[in-house]
Design brief:
The chain has about 500 residues and is mainly beta. Helix content is about 5%, strand content about 40%. The strands form seven sheets. Strands 2, 3, 4, 25, 26, 28, 29 and 30 form an eight-stranded antiparallel sheet that branches. The longest helix is centred in the N-terminal third of the chain and has 13 residues. The two termini are about 30 Å apart.
């Protein structure tokens, strides 16, 4: 079979660049990727691209996951967390009946369960009496205020964690005029994710942890990080030069704090913007990606203040009047981190756009839930609140193939990706990719001088065609790369009408 040839000015320039760099050996920064999965969601692996680009994926709307239709849930359900613990999926969300101050007695934390992440039920837990009945799905009620406002649970995977603390959570509010206060963020523990108790009486994160006096708290994104070997929490901070009625700034942004014991937390550090435009991120919803936990995925709510889309006439028809919701709009964006105080914003475009209809173009609608979970052999799902503040408020499910948040995309004319220098462990290279019928991918392995290694050159590579989550890369001599394990190498991908999503060695 005749192999395809990519002919373009970009390709010729790439070859010239390779020839010029061949034979030059310098002090190299080498990435040790071991055998872990690396998704192409940032430029961590990328040295250069010619004729290809990073492209954001388009999630598929899989329909309504759950309606927020119980009386105690109200119109203002939001701040959703989705967890998978063994065979059980658990969903937590705030119920609130009326617009008003945070931490009021009408706020509750509700719970739903699923065996597949697709079909959800609201069990009658009988834990708290609400509206004269215990036949409800409430796990925190007014006796826990103000924690139900922003309760943020997770499954603690730290080795040796006591069974009584297998679930942990943060929640609570700071001292602000007119708001119920807990003096900061409280720590909670639970053996089953349903029955919660405070770990400490007082807030474990308070004003002393911040560099500005005043802060408020949207749900803290908190988890045990295997890669950093500590608890990590991402919280809202305010920054900017204009005081906002004592809130400490004019821009909603994100801070980070860590702890080794879930009680003693480090000072909150502001996350870096890395030169990106100033935008308000109302929620960050950061959590380790379940297939590559060293990479943190944030499904952030981008809040566009004073950007009015809904007309007064539409608001009147929706019985909104002229309240706070119609003056702003929001969407969901993808942010990522590999630890530390930097978020990567490779994609400024919306990851989840508002849907058709004015109900989706008012403030605090389109807020993503925290959590990306597997819902099939090759499928992952995440969830987004729609119609916030309306009787039709609900949670929608969106799907992607696993690892496919984004890709290095090559057009029909072709192009190339060259990685940074790597060291790996294993005997095979696998890639997650998709091509068109005439498209394809070939892979070359180069040595530390940038020269193609005999037996692994582009001309000897087997062309990869298809759409697969894991395909073993091979050459005329086979797929065994164990002779190169532990050595400094880099990968060159020649691509045509194709997407490369992820790679790993095994």
């Amino acid at each position: 079979m005749k192999r395809f040839v990519y002919v373009s000015i970009v390709g010729l320039l790439s070859v010239v660049g390779l020839l010029m760099s061949a034979g030059r050996k310098t002090n190299l920064d080498v990435l040790d990727v071991g055998s872990r999965l690396e998704i192409l969601i940032d430029r961590f692996l990328i040295d250069r691209m010619s004729g290809v680009q990073l492209r954001l994926a388009s999630p598929v709307d899989a329909g309504i996951a759950i309606q927020f239709d119980k009386p105690w849930e109200g119109l203002f359900c939001n701040f959703v967390t989705v967890l998978k613990d063994g065979p059980t999926y658990k969903l937590y969300y705030r119920g609130k009946r009326a617009v008003g101050k945070d931490g009021t007695p009408d706020e509750v934390t509700c719970y739903a369960a699923s065996s597949d992440g697709i079909h959800w039920t609201k069990p009658d837990l009988g834990l708290f009496e609400v509206d004269g009945t215990r036949a409800n799905n409430v796990v925190l009620d007014k006796t826990h205020q103000p924690a139900p406002h922003n309760f943020s649970p997770f499954v603690d995977t730290r080795p040796g964690v006591p069974a009584s603390e297998r679930y942990k959570a943060l929640g609570g509010l700071f001292d602000m005029e007119g708001h119920v206060s807990s003096g900061g963020v409280l720590a909670f523990v639970s053996p089953d994710g349903l029955r919660w108790s405070r770990l400490k009486d007082k807030a474990v994160i308070n004003h002393s942890h911040y560099r500005v006096k005043y802060n408020d708290t949207s749900p803290p994104a908190v988890f045990w990080s295997e890669s950093e070997r500590r608890y990590v929490a991402y919280l809202r901070v305010w920054e900017g030069t204009t005081d906002r009625a004592g809130w400490g700034g004019s821009i909603r942004w994100i801070g980070r704090t860590t702890s080794e014991d879930f009680v003693n937390w480090s000072p909150v550090e502001f996350m870096s913007r890395e030169g990106t435009p100033v935008e308000q991120l109302y929620l960050n919803q950061t959590t380790p990606y379940f297939r590559a936990p060293h990479i943190y995925i944030g499904l952030a709510a981008r809040f566009m203040e004073n950007r009015k889309v809904v007309t007064n006439e539409q608001a009147e028809a929706l019985h909104l009047g002229t309240n706070q919701f119609i003056g702003h709009c929001s969407d969901g964006v993808l942010i990522t981190s590999r630890g530390g105080t930097t978020y990567d914003r490779s994609f400024m475009e919306g990851f989840v756009r508002p849907d058709i209809g004015p109900e989706n173009w008012t403030a605090r609608s389109n807020y993503p839930a925290r959590g990306v979970v597997p819902t099939g052999d090759n499928e992952m799902s995440f969830y987004v609140v729609r119609h916030y503040g309306y009787p039709t408020v609900h949670l929608r499910r969106y799907t992607l193939r696993v690892d496919r948040f984004s890709s290095v995309n090559a057009p029909y004319s072709g192009g190339e990706l060259v990685t940074k220098f790597l060291r790996f462990h294993g005997s095979q290279l696998l890639i997650n990719f998709a091509t068109s019928a005439p498209g394809g991918i070939r892979v070359e392995i180069q040595d530390e001088t940038g020269r193609a290694i005999p037996g692994f050159t582009l001309s000897e590579a087997t062309e990869l065609i298809g759409n697969e989550i894991e395909r073993v890369v091979s050459w005329q001599r086979g797929s065994d790369v164990s002779a190169l394990a532990g050595k400094t190498i880099r990968l060159r991908f020649a691509m045509k009408d194709a997407d490369l999503y992820a790679l790993r060695f095994r």
